[in-house]
Backbone:
């Protein structure tokens, strides 16, 4: 069973309408591939975040499928065009079916 993620999301405090802004996300997660062995020689079960969906202003703007080759505590970055003030919502799906969510406000001026 997955524990709650504590993602660190970095986006600008404000942006101008039409500006392209970078969003960076650091997620604390072991991202076990299922191919590593523990000290006793047993396979460590696979446990990864296998999907990330990003919504801005309620619309899906990005969908990413994550694979076992992604490192533990993945750092992801992507760009959004600032249209109006609203929420950037991130939703991760873990291998065990747990869904983790995080929301952050993007303030748009002018």
Residues:
């Amino acid at each position: 069973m997955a524990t709650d993620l504590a993602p660190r999301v970095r986006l600008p405090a404000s942006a101008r309408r039409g500006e392209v802004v970078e969003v960076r996300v650091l997620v604390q997660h072991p991202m076990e591939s299922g191919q590593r062995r523990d000290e006793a020689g047993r396979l460590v079960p696979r446990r990864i975040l296998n999907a990330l969906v990003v919504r801005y202003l309620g619309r899906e703007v990005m969908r990413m499928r994550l694979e076992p080759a992604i490192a533990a505590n993945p750092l992801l970055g992507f760009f959004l065009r600032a249209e109006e003030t609203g929420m950037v919502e991130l939703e991760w799906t873990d291998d065990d079916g747990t869904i983790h969510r995080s929301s952050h406000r993007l303030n748009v001026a002018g």
